[in-house]
Every structure is written in C-alpha cells, then in structure tokens.
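Justification of resources, computational component.

The compute hours requested in this renewal are based largely on the per-chain cost of generating structure records like the one below. Each record pairs the submitted sequence with a full structure-token output. That output is archived, and it is also reused by downstream analysis tasks.
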Amino acid sequence: LLAVNLTIAFGSDYRPRAASVDVGRWVHQSYGPTARIFGPDGETQVVNYYAHGRCESFPEIATVAAVMKRIRKSRPDVVLLPTDERTPERNSVLQSRVEALGFAPVDRVRFGFNKSKVLVLARS
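The structure output for this chain reads:
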C-alpha cells in the first residue's frame, strides 16, 4: 500500500493543480474578494479557494442550455470552461455562447496558467 501511494504521489503531474492555484490568485488580484466565478464542479471550487470569492459550479453532464441559464442568473466575473478532449464540440459551443455574453478568453500563457484544465474567460 505504501509503495502504491508513493508511486501516485511522486508520479502525479501537479502542474494542473498549480495552474488552478495560479488562476485563483489571478482572479483575486484582478477582481478582489467579491469575485464571482462560474465553472465546472471540482475545478471551480479549487480556483475559488485561492480567489477568496464566491462561486457556482455545474456538473459535467449539464447541457449547454442549462449552463448558459445559470451563467445569466449568477452574473459571474470569470467563467471557467472545460477543455476536455472527449467533448470538443460541446466545449466550442459553450465558449462561443459565453463570449457572446461579453466574456473574452484570458491569455493562459501570459498569466502562467497554460497547464490549467479549464479555459478562463473574463468579463470584457
């Protein structure tokens, strides 16, 4: 058991987690403690922990219509969208609809979170 846990601990890629921390810190610096974040379950809570803001999240199985309805209702400052390779069409539709609401993608490389598991869009 110890060997398995050590293999997981030392063999894991922590860059996505570190990128989530960086996204959260960026949100906090950019929007302060009143930041409102909306994104996928799990990742959003990690980002929000470091942003010290408020968040709402959606399950992986949520429809595009359901996600858009919740974005309109929650009026977030930052939207996190999945970059899951299993659903590229859905991701593309979500991104275009979120951009139509006045959000723009944040330069992931410039702000140091290019290893993030989410696309970060900020209200423009």
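Residues 15-31 form the longest helix (17 residues). Confidence is low (pLDDT under 50) at residues 4-11.
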